[in-house]
Fold:
Amino acid sequence: MKDFLLDKDLKRKDRRIVEKYGKKCQYIWAQEEPKNMGAWSYILCFWKFGSIICCSREASASPASGSSKVHEIRHNKVIDTVMKFAIKN
Structure:
């Protein structure tokens, strides 16, 4: 039952965002996890309000690189992608 309430609450929040910015707006989901992990697949199941894209690391079998330098590079790449998209639009 708890999962149902979470889904219902998520849909309500999504609807409020779309009411504020409109259906024609391009929405972005950003996450540090690889595309095949994190909340992206969950968002895809419930997002019914127009187009949405994911800015994340590429799909991977591992959630972490094991290197702080590699993590920083990957993290910055996700942030840079989101910011470039925001500036462009």
Q: What stands out?
A: The two ends are 39 Å apart (CA to CA). The chain has one domain: 2-88. Strands lie at 27-34, 52-57. The CA atoms of residues 35 and 41 lie 8 Å apart.
